[in-house]
Give the backbone structure.
Amino acid sequence: MFKLKATIIKDVRILLRDKVGISLMFVMPIILVVVVTSIQNSTFQLVNKNRLPIVINNNDTGQASKQLIAAINKIGMFKVSQVSGDQSEKQMTDAMHQKDATLGVIIPANFSVKVSAKSKSIAGKALKSFGLEGDSVKHEAGDIDPLTVYYNPILQESIRLSVQGAIRSALQLVESRETLRSLYFSINEKQLPEKLENEMLNNKTAINEIPVSKDGTRTTPNATQHNVPAWTIFAMFFIIMSLGGSVVREKVSGSFIRLKTLPTNYMVGLLSKQIVYLLVTMLQAAVIFSIGIWLFPFFGLPALNLPADISALVIVTIVCGWCAVSYAICVGVFADTQEQANGFGAVSIVILACVGGLMVPSFAMQGFFKSAADISPMHWCLQAYYTLFLEGGKLKDVVNNIIPLFIITLVFQFVTFIGLKRKNLI
C-alpha cells in the first residue's frame, strides 16, 4: 500500500507540472462544449423559433398568387418580403443579398389563370365520375408553370427539404381551395360560403409529439442535453495528450527497466497512473456538468438536467473514464516518442469521435461506418449517457452499453500487457 501511495503522489506531481496537458484536458473541452452547444442551440432556434427570410417576386395579378403568399406567411416558418418587376436570376440573387434572405421564390405571370383552369378541369372530371356533366370537361387544362425557388448554398439539405415541403403544402392548399370552389359552383351555381370553405380546408387531424423516455417523463431534449455528455466523453479521451506522453517519457528515461531492479511490481506503476487519471476524468465530468447546470443559463443556453439515477451516472462515468485511461496507456506503450503519442492520439480520438457518433449521429451513418460505430468505445459511452440524460433511463437500462465498454477496456489492458512484454519493459 505504501508503494502504491508513493507512486500515486509521484504521478500527481508529474501531472501538475504538465501545464499544457492540464489545459488540454480542462480548458479545451470547456470551450468546445460552450461553443458547440451555442451553435447547435442557435440551429435549433433557427428551425423551431426564428423564421427563414424569404424574398417573393409575384409576377401574377390574380387571387391565387396572393393566397399562396398568404399561405406561405401563415406557415410560420418564413419571414416574407416581396419585390416587384420581372426578376432575372441575377436580379433575384441581388435582391436576396440586399434583404439578407436565404430563399427566393418567383411566381409566374399566369399562375392564377393556370390554377383556375386546372381546378375547373379537375372539378369537371369529378362531376362526370358522379354521373353529372360539367363545362370544365370540355377543355383539358395544361400544367401549371412551376415556381422557381432560389436558395443560399449554405442551407443544409435537411432544411431545404423542410422548405420544399412547406412550400408544396402552401401550393397544395391554394390548388385545393380553387378546386373546391369550382366543384361547389358547378353543383350549386353559387359561390362557396367562406365559413364552409374554412371548415372544409382546415379540418385537419392534430398531431401530438411526445419524446419517448424510459422513466415516463415528457421533457423535450435540448442542445445542452445532447452536447454536454458528448463533449465530456471527448474530454475524457483527450487525456491521451498528457497520459500517453507521460508513459513514453517513463519508457525513454528507463523507469520501467529500473522498476525490474526494485522490490516492487510494474503493476503498481500502471495501477497508480490509472487511479490518478481516472480521478482526472471524474473531475472533468464534474466540471463540465457543473458548467452545464449553473453557467449555461448566463450564456442564454438551456441548463443541463441531470438524470434521476445519479448512481448510474457515476458508474457510467467511471467506466467511461477507465476506458479512456486504458486507451491512453495502450497508445503510450506502443509509441516510441512523445510526438508519436500526441500525434496519433489526437488524430485517433477525432476519428473515434466521428465514428462513435459524437460529431455525426450514428443513425445517420450508412454501410461500413454504421457497423464500425460498434468498435468505437465512444459509441458505447455516448449511448450510455444518452440513455440516462435523454431517455431518463436507470442503471439496468445502461447495462447493455456498459458491458461492451468494459470488454473494450479489458482488450486495451491486454494489448498493453502484450506491448510491455514485447518491448521487454516488464
Summary: The chain is about 65% helix and 5% strand. Residues 114 and 144 are 5 Å apart (CA to CA). The chain has a mean pLDDT of 81. The first strand starts at residue 52 and ends at 58.
